[in-house]
Amino acid sequence: MSEPLLIAKGLSKSFGGLKALSDVSLTVERGEILGIVGPNGAGKSVLINLITKFYAPTSGTLQFAGEDATSLSRLQMARTGVARTFQNIRLFKRMTVLENVLVADPETSASPFRSAVFRKSRLDRAIALLDLMRLTDLADQVAGSLPYGAARRLEIARALATGPRLLLLDEPAAGMNEEETAALVEDIGKARQRVEGILLVEHDMSLIRALSSRLVALIAGMKVAEGSVDTVLSDPQVIEAYLGPDDDAAAPERMAA
Ligand SMILES: Nc1ncnc2c1ncn2[C@@H]1O[C@H](COP(=O)(O)OP(=O)(O)OP(=O)(O)O)[C@@H](O)[C@H]1O
Ligand SMILES: [Mg+2]
Description:
By secondary structure, this protein is an alpha/beta fold. It has helices spanning 44-51, 74-80, 97-104, 106-110, 116-132, 148-161, 178-194, 205-211, 229-233, 236-243; strands at 6-15, 18-28, 33-37, 59-64, 67-68, 82-84, 166-170, 197-201, 214-219, 222-227.
């Protein structure tokens, strides 16, 4: 197998006395979608914040595409090809859908005086991303007025506009109904064609099952299981963490938050 896209070793993050993440190691292989599951407060978003450098780790190392990335800044990490979406949607609410994607393109912020040809290529890229994420009809709508599902798809389009190699998605299906979630499986499938790997944090088990190559389960900041989707979702610790000790083992489908 070729070298992994991302290697995290011994990642820990404490907030005061709280150990939000304890000694977590994982890899994202090239071409895969690594699913991350775990109950509320398990450290899933902290993990994304550490990989994207929104938080500095208490300890641990990161390697990205063969290079040490432990001491990169947030901007450097983004430039090297790591993009994310947020659990709590972050969009420019007063800008249109198209403008939101345009300003996410690093070329836009880097070169306000570029020629019309460059502007045209940027616009073409943004339009293609809107098409990919089924947002074309909403291009001129302000982001603040979007329905939930469309806002989440716009977050993905914005992340893709940075041209990432690794995409981290923090609960992309949160707030979506069953139909929207099924459509999102297709959308993330398309996003997968544009990147080298995806790390997918999600409570919705239909999405996790449909998309994940492998799973890592976190509980209370610790990695408790890792492996195939079936192996991890049938792990007694994982089932207990989601359902409580008295529930039957046949119910991981009920994990949805
Ligand atoms: N900036 C912060 N300051 C203090 N504590 C934090 C901070 N961010 C996260 N935590 C704590 O770290 C722990 C892990 O939080 P995290 O947001 O990673 O959980 P999660 O697995 O994403 O949960 P959820 O499924 O609810 O999104 C929680 O106890 C949380 O309160
Ligand atoms: Mg979270």
